[in-house]
Specification:
single chain, 78 residues, alpha+beta, 2 strands
Length: 78
Amino acid sequence: MVATLTSKGQITLPVGLRRKMGLKAGDKLDFKLTERGEVVFEVVKSGLEGLAGIAKPKDGRRRTLAEMEAAIAKGRSR
């Protein structure tokens, strides 16, 4: 998939990529440059969406208080 950089430094993500990732207007993306010079990104989850799955982990294992506090601290650092 190819995107073109505008004079304002903006790109439009191809519609196929947006659909596959479930992206919509207003979603935030966090871009990082790897040591190999590759650009990677992830969707920034915020608000209630960022809490999805916290109460019922996919692996079914209960989280300790220390694990929950670490997750909260990690969320604050973003």
